[in-house]
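Give me structure tokens for this 125-residue protein.
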Amino acid sequence: MKKYITYAMTALFATIAVSIAAPDKDAMTAKHADFMGVYADGIQTLQKELDSMKKWDMKSFSFSDFNVVFPDADTATMTYKVTVEGTLEGKDASGTYNAGSVWRKHNGEWHAVFHTNTKEEKPSQ
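Here you go.
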């Protein structure tokens, strides 16, 4: 199960990254046309997500604590943590983020349709 989730997340990030650089960007982004993201700074469509990714300078990232639930055969809901070292618009954005994604199977292919994450905050003492 962990291997499946890792592949799914790698596919999401790889697809988005390839979408930025692909010669046929329209064909690539069409696969995730219904994507929505919810973050502390607002709600994002796929285009806003792609534009936002260009502002990151990621030195490293890793995934942990994967969990997946299948509400039905064509839907996967995942939760996981992402530990990032990097900057966003020149400001340090390193830390651990709690994340969740919803994937839908359409015509035999899995598509990311929703994603959210929030940076973990240390409890005040």
